[in-house]
Amino acid sequence: MNEHVVDDFITALQGATTVEGARDLFTKTLQQLEVGHYAYLGLRFRGSGPRGRPFFITTYPQPWVEHYDGNNYLQIDPVMLEAPSRSTPMHWGTREHRKTVTPRQKKFLNEAAEMGLCQGSAIPIHAAGGEFGLVSVAIDATPRQFTALMRAHQHQLHLLSLYYHAHVAENFISNESPKVSVTSRERECLLWSALGKSSWDISEILNISEATVNFHMQNAMRKLEVYSRPHAIVKAVMMGIINP
Amino acid sequence: MNEHVVDDFITALQGATTVEGARDLFTKTLQQLEVGHYAYLGLRFRGSGPRGRPFFITTYPQPWVEHYDGNNYLQIDPVMLEAPSRSTPMHWGTREHRKTVTPRQKKFLNEAAEMGLCQGSAIPIHAAGGEFGLVSVAIDATPRQFTALMRAHQHQLHLLSLYYHAHVAENFISNESPKVSVTSRERECLLWSALGKSSWDISEILNISEATVNFHMQNAMRKLEVYSRPHAIVKAVMMGIINP
DNA sequence: CGGCAACCTATCAGTTCTGCTAGCACCCTA
DNA sequence: TAGGGTGCTAGCAGAACTGATAGGTTGCCG
Description:
The first copy, chain A, is α+β, with helices and mostly antiparallel strands. The first copy, chain A, folds into 2 domains: 5-171, 2-Layer Sandwich (Beta-Lactamase); 184-238, Arc Repressor Mutant, subunit A. Chain A has helices spanning 5-14, 19-32, 62-70, 78-82, 95-98, 103-114, 143-171, 184-194, 199-206, 210-224, 229-238, and strands at 37-43, 55-58, 90-92, 119-126, 132-139. The first copy, chain A, has a 5-stranded antiparallel β-sheet. In chain A, a hairpin with a 5-residue loop joins β4 (119-126) and β5. Chain A is elongated, with a radius of gyration of 22 Å. At the A-B interface, α7 and α11 of A face α7 and α11 of B. The structure holds a DNA duplex.
């Protein structure tokens, strides 16, 4: 029945030139898979720099969203805490999952269940450049029905989420890095510094004077528009200039 | 026919307790999808530290592997150069792909084709903790056959690759981080330092003395077993202690 | 060939960080 | 309630880094 859901989605996504268009397409496609509510959270987009605004879309009930925000549940929500460190989807709210959470988190899950968010699947999305997104779908059904639904659609949900995130990141997030061009010497100095070497250490490694190392670091910092080594290195890593 | 290939693979993977067992399972499963040759490259595993050994498995023809290594083709191979910055699979060696490569790369692709590696699909795998893996499958067939095969199995290849990498990373790579426990103050200092703040800046932000900031940074460095701020911050980011 | 630009090399004064030491507040437990 | 452990606060000497300045090398182009 849903043989070509994913392919159709990918094709249609090419024509989605606005955030709203892509969102509606994603929502509609998930409805085809009998998903009641979902939340998409796009974090750490490439080029958006540190602490860039998250990209947030949800069809969760408004009262729940407000309750969630009001109680600072981001710090408690077991999905938000566990999913980022996973590479594959996880189920939440199930009998099995509840065994692994703290009492406070259990209370949180109970509150969610009262709003119809009984259980669901959370799909972590790790993309190029350290990007991270999260799709959490909620299924208001019996455990038995949930299991059957997941068996049928888990992989499709997974793929849809991956392609949706990739499309959002590529088209709707300003990810233009002002193409910093560091020289090879500068890159070497950044890398060794990131690995814990001091200027003197690096001067020995590269067979140049310590003062020269400092000069290269300085130029690298100027190009990266920062004023300390730690910041330069973090930025260089974020921009993919060095891979420690 | 191949309805449950992915689910069967995931189930069987649970029982694969050795590298060889998982490899053979992956190979066998890909053969079911009519994939002639594949290469799996696991890079940047979490916890394996900077410059960890890559994890490499391939069924490519031995002569090609040697030719590849001998000519340092890692620096030329358009797949190796492009895939890491992509979030979704790409096709290589196709008429369309050849339009986007340099003359040297075209020569490279021609040499590959002579060995039966005419075209294929490359699946980038971004996982938790900045892990990266790459699965490249080669299909020795006409462009028409290739298109049909991809239409039928692309998504399955994608999912198989994701789960295979996750399993390898979790079970066969020593990813035990000695559970460094930094305090909240230490984490705050690390984070602000990563964002370019000096000790004095941070002391103003946190309303404590500069000496105290230095003390916290020092404890963080001791716990992380490093001897400079740049290194501490890089390690903290790698270990997921801070998210700049 | 001369001029130019980009990069590497080097030096120095002033600022910041590293390593060490020590007191105080809090929580837990005996 | 006393003791031990943990974490936060703070000061100081010596080492490392920041920022500005300047000469030397290489390769490109008119």
